[in-house]
Amino acid sequence: MIQPKQWPWLGLIASLSLLTGCFDRSSSTAEQQKAQQSESSQRIKLAMLLPPRSALNPLSDDAFKLSRWSTAETLVKLDQQANLLPSLATSWEQLNATEWRFEIRPEVIFHDNTPLTSQAVVNALNVAISASPKPRILDGVELSVQADGEHAIIIRTQVRDPLLPQRLSSPQLSILSLNAYGENGVISPVKAGTGPFVLTALHGTSSATLERFDDYWGEKAQAPGIDVSFVPDGMARAAALRTGSADIVEAIPVSQAPLVDQNLVHEVPMPHTNTLYLNTRRGVMSDPAMRAAVRQALNREQLVNNVYEQRADIAKGLLGPAVAWAEQWRQPVNYPVQAAQPKGQTITLATFTDRTELPEVAIYLAQQLTDAGFNVKQDVREYSQIESDALAGKFDAFILSRATVLDSGDPVAYLYSDFSCEGSFNIAQLCDPNIDQALKEAAQLTGVERQKAIIAAENAILASDAAIPMLHERVIQGEAAHVRGALRDPRERELIDNHTYIARDEAL
Predict the structure, then answer these.
(1) CA angle, residues 478, 483, 489, in degrees to nearest 5
(2) Residue span of the signal peptide, if any (predicted)?
């Protein structure tokens, strides 16, 4: 079996089929080659950080790839200020405390040429609701969906949920055609979305191919297609930008940024917090006094200066400067437990290689904790190989670069999934009824009162030392000089849309 190349765009087709008929075949072949070369040069070459973890199953974090490629769409979307905008739903209204009605956009067709109907929307949402585990955005939420005619749905929540429309903006609740959902829970987004680009092929964890969807309900894409390569190695991603092998590059490592033309690199302030999760359920870190010892041992400034070369901000809480309102409501944390003396206790510190800086962070943290009296072992692997062990609580400490408003544009969903008793991403294994109650109270509020309640919940989480925020990242995105309209999205939901294109012939 021939394996797909890592960079499928590096060569043009070597030969073309001979044309038959009563005309100049050589002339036609030359014209065809010229047209094909022109279109090939206009395709967007994209180098991405993480390979798919679940064959692009939209219920997983792979959903954010589908949204960044503009192939799968949700009922609503968020603007830069996290305000709701129409997408596959044209309007919505709250009927009462627990019921919402959404009007579905008419005359939309999926990439498999089937129509978007209320039945398709209900099916997609019901699959997500009944999934095990559920998408993080649905943690702690009980809801039901039913069709209301051909182009409307009604969603009912068990309790009042002011965040419901924002939840529906999560890429993990993308609407795919009925044909995308197979047996045994298999979901394939290939030729199943509604966006301006149709996903035509996924080549394992190596690459993916997308073509322009000419029947898109909105403005047709300017680029003829996207050629995606998954390049976990940070040096290789930076090299791809320098050599022109890629037009757009995700997450150039801090160490590589100075080696790239500075006109091609763009810092995007992200709601990413580099956090040390401590195992509260078993092992050395189940002792609150040991967790306090870890907190006191950390030198955040050393990490920001030495690892991130000052392209990051020292963390004051779980929510960083990208959540603009957080700092004004934050209060000093009253830590209830005094730090213990480690006296040689052995702990396992784990992280993953996919984000280039994290293994180096682990080296510095291991030294800091060793200096404090711990005996530190390290476990560093690719994320796809380590996530299940982290979620199962097999490590004493785990370093994670965590997006704090990725799922809904609101921190409640992140805090619930990571720190509640029923959270699906609870690496710290934390279960505190007081924290759960604080999160439930925050979820019921709106406006300034909601913000204050979120910060109160953050304060309670910090007081447990289950998660120690270290720094807030700025992601470095690479764009070749001929790229136009690439999106620099702090929430990492969007990257290429129908207005992104390659302008090789334009004056730079």
Answers:
(1) 55
(2) none
Q: Which residues contact 27 (CB under 8 A, 6 or more apart)?
A: none
Q: How far apart are the first and last CA of the chain?
A: 43
Residue 452 tokens read as 């204050």
Residues 361-378 pLDDT 10s? 999 999 999 999 999 999
Radius of gyration of the chain (CA): 24
What are the residues whose beta carbons fall under 8 Å from the beta carbon of 212, sequence distance 6 or more?
196, 197, 198, 220, 221, 223, 224, 225
Pair 86, 103: CB distance under 8 Å: no
310 within 8 A of 357, measured Cβ to Cβ: no
**Tens of pLDDT, residues 60-81:** 989 999 999 999 999 999 887 6
The separation between CA 240 and the C-alpha centre of its own chain, rounded to angstroms, equals 22
Please state which CATH number belongs to domain 43-50+188-267+475-502.
Answer: 3.40.190.10
Report the distance separating Cα 295 and Cα 287, nearest Å. 13
Q: Kindly give the pairing relationship between strand 483-484 and strand 501-502.
A: antiparallel
Burial class (CB in 10 A: 0-12, 13-18, 19+), 77: buried
**φ and ψ at residue 146, rounded to 5 degrees:** -145, 155
CA distances from 365 to 86, 163, 349, 476 (A): 45, 37, 9, 23
CATH H-level, domain 63-185: superfamily: Dipeptide-binding Protein; Domain 1 (3.90.76.10)
Q: Give the whole-angstrom CA distance, residue 466 versus residue 252.
A: 30
Tokens standing for 62? 């792979």
The structure's pTM equals 0.74
Domain residue spans of the chain: 43-50+188-267+475-502, 63-185, 269-474
Strands 76-78 and 84-86: antiparallel
Contacts of 443-451 spanning 24+ positions with Cβ under 8 A: 443/140, 443/161, 443/162, 443/163, 443/412, 443/416, 444/159, 444/160, 444/162, 445/162, 446/162, 450/162, 450/412, 451/325, 451/326, 451/329
User: What are the DSSP E strand ranges found in 218-257?
Assistant: 225-230, 248-249
- Taking only the tens place, the pLDDT of each residue in 385-436 is 999 999 999 999 999 998 887 666 678 888 998 999 989 899 999 999 999 9
Exposure pattern of 14-35 as b/e (b: 16+ CB <10 Å)? eeeeeeeeeeeeeeeeeeeeee
Q: Counting beta carbons within 10 angstroms of the beta carbon of residue 392, is it exposed (0 to 12), middle (13 to 18) or buried (19 or more)?
A: exposed
Return the CATH fold of 269-474: Dipeptide-binding Protein; domain 3 (3.10.105)
